[in-house]
Structure formats: C-alpha cells, structure tokens
Amino acid sequence: xxxxxxxxxxxxxxxxxxxxxxxxxxxxxxxxxxxxxxxxxxxxxxxxxxxxxxxxxxxxxxxxxxxxxxxxxxxxxxxxxxxxxxxxxxxxxxxxxxxxxxxxxxxxxxxxxxxxxxxxxxxxxxxxxxxxxxxxxxx
Length: 139
Hints:
Helix content is 19%, strand content 38%. By secondary structure, it is α+β, with helices and mostly antiparallel strands. It has a seven-stranded antiparallel β-sheet with strand order 3-4-5-9-8-7-6, sandwiched between helices. It has a three-stranded antiparallel β-sheet with strand order 1-2-10. The relative contact order is 0.21.
C-alpha cells in the first residue's frame, strides 16, 4: 500500500486508487479515486506542549475545533483520548450531508489535525477513513 511520509510530521498509508495533494507542505488532501466521495484533510502545526496533550486539554481542543466547523452542541461531543506512547484524541461528528471523523495527534516534533469525511449513510466509506486516521503515525 502506498504511503505519504512527511518528515518530522506524520505518515499515513493510502489505498492505491487514492489521490493526494499538498499546496504548501503543511496542508494535505487525500481523496478516493473515482467519485472522490471520501476525503481526508490533514494540517501540520508546530508541536504542542505535554500539557496540551493531556486528556482534559485535548478533549477541550477537539470540542473547540468542532464548534469552529459549525457543530451546534460541541460541548456534548464525546471524545476518545487514546493511551499509548503518542497522545491522540478522536471524535465522530454526524452531519446532514457528511459525517466527519477527526483526529488530533500530539507527536514530539509536530501537532497534526486530520479530518476524514464520507457522505452521511455511507457506513463503509466512513469506516475506511476512520481506519486510515487510526493508522496515522509519527514520521
């Protein structure tokens, strides 16, 4: 499976039929082949502090991001903070037209936000972008 590897930031495996673009080396868009209904947007920022990666802080950051993209009740959003060597936070946002799975990745050399989306009702497509985000690792 092909892979995008951004030094000092992240790496992600992409299916053979997916396209990827980057305008400035900080923002990346991946989209499924054919109809392009599945999409992942990734933005690389400067690394955050250890305090920012704590579960309470990362939950607040994900909720603030959700509010910023228009989610009405972002304070009630359930956020999963995954344990392990790399702090991460994930949330699912259901919409009228598209569903979004967002991941915050607190790597040592960068902070990465990835948002995967699929048409509402496309459970298989949503599962695919969700699994791709779960697979993001530090480069």
